[in-house]
Amino acid sequence: MKHETSAERRQINYLDAIVQAQTEELERDSRVIMMGEDIAIYGSGDLIERFGPTRIWAMPISEASFTGVGIGAAIAGLRPIVDLNIASFMYLASDQIINQAAKLRFMTAGKVSVPIVFRVCMYYGASIAAQHSDRPYPLFMNVPGLKVISPSSPADAKGLLKAAVREDDPVVFFEDSKLWNVKEEVPTDPDFLVPIGKADIKRVGSDVTLVAISGAMRPTLEAADALAAQRISAEVIDPRTLKPLDMRTIVRSVEKTGRLIIIENAHRILGAGAEIAAFMAEEAFESLRKPIIRLTSPDVHVPFSPVLEEALYPRKEQIVAAAKRLLT
Amino acid sequence: MENSMPVAQEQQREIYRRMVRIRRFEEEGTRLYMAGEIPGAYHASIGQEATIVGACMALRDTDAMTGTHRSHGHPIGKGADLKALMAELMGKSTGICRGRGGSMHLADASVGIIGESAIVGGGIPLATGVGLSSKVLGTQLVCLCFFGDGAVNQGTFHESLNMASLWKLPVIYLCENNGYAITTSVAMSHGQPNIALRAQSYGMPGIVVDGQDAGAVLDVTAAAVARARGGKGPTLIEAQTYRFDEHQVGLVVPGTPYRTLEEVAKYKAHRDPIVLFRRVLLSNGIAANELEAIESEVATAVAEAIQFARDSPLPDVAGLYDNLYSRPLETASP
After folding, report:
1. Catalytic residue list contains A301
2. Fold observed for domain B5-319
3. What domains does chain A contain, in order, with CATH numbers?
4. Is there a catalytic annotation at residue A185?
């Protein structure tokens, strides 16, 4: 896998990066197909015109089964990207994702291979209430056989989604709608890939380690800027892949800083932060100079009213305050 | 029949051979299970052999298939070797899934099985996806999807048949209607008990066939396969069959019997698919000693499979993580 290839880069946003990744992979490999509700019309640019209906499959509202159809197609030689649209629709499809996609290679001793990507959007913070607003990646981190990715930057979104399509295992790609309009320079090389299972240090620092997941990266980077203005040097790490989780990079950082804050927008109970904190307690205890802090959503559903929902997710001010608490 | 007589006779002998292979395999498997040589749960296909073999014989070797929790018979019906199947039942390293799948998951890829789903109805979308792949890749491959009467009430049945009809996918949905989902009868669980009639809702043919008549099952499945391969889309076949044993070997169902002893005895005495087919073969002029030779050849093959399984090593715990992913994960700990 190539980390960086030709130098050419273009400024695009997170959502465009995802569409670009899909288009390039459809272009590269005729076994790649896309399946999802309304994808012939919405959200995928001109894919139907470019690739036609045998590559771009508009699905009836049958999440449980079209996910399984994708899995069957993957077993039989295709490499589908199943777009489940809003993340909470995954619950309908979870039997097929967990009982079939995640287990078949193991249960058949490798005779069956399921090269498939489930693309799901965590579309929260938009006043669409609890049934459309979940961040369910911790549930799927608990399933052996799956890989789970959750990029926070446009380049990572592009490189990881492309890597996922080329992967021979089922990958759940959690995109975060809070990041859709984030822009950065993204490599144009059609073979630009970001390796699955490698964390990225988004900002080097020495006083405190901030591990931020997906949409929580935005306030975390703002907090790191604010802390820098107060002469506090924060190291910011994006795991990028939640399963397998690159704990080594986090341990190394904690060995340097002795302080750890984990920031995520999922629920507190058994979130990614809980797993990271437990691992650090086991493997990096001697390096920790202060207790670990988790900043998460509380264990409550997303309310409809914007004023209630806003209060749920960790904000820059809370991250700054937590870091200062660890440094006093 | 359009076939010339020798060809038809050869096919009939093969149907008989495979049905007897399933019966002997299951009888011996039941015995081994009761003796503690096979762990877990054991769901035998005894009584349903004609449906399984009749349908499988309509396929090409390269065609795909999915099974259920009651699927020892399906790979055998498609022509699988018995050794790796018996070794899998015993949880041995030489098993078809190296001891990772067991009784409910004898997924023999060498005969086109892409998975046997012990989640009722779970294999129906997978089979539909194989059909979609066949269409996209132009492979001319057909998928035969087995499921029971209970699975018809799962959402995956309805959603999948709708999609297969919409896109004219080459899938044969074959319902082995043995009358009971464990103890729940079709009458107790289906608002409309005619399973084949459900096909009308999805715009595909729905055919009822006597599942104890291997020849009849072969004929209707062959027609459905031809239709599927010709691009005309899926068919739902309801094969009316009967499970001779309890849902699970050794299961004692408490309370009032959900099916009467008379009903079970009647099927065993008058509707045994192997007895019925043997009669057909004899009346077609196949000699009794030929059939006896098949029976004895099968008994030897099953005995050899048992010996192979017994002699095989158990899996090594060191390989526990094998095939969890396409390649081993790098260890996450520093």
Report:
1. no
2. Rossmann fold (3.40.50)
3. 9-187 (3.40.50.970), 200-326 (3.40.50.920)
4. no
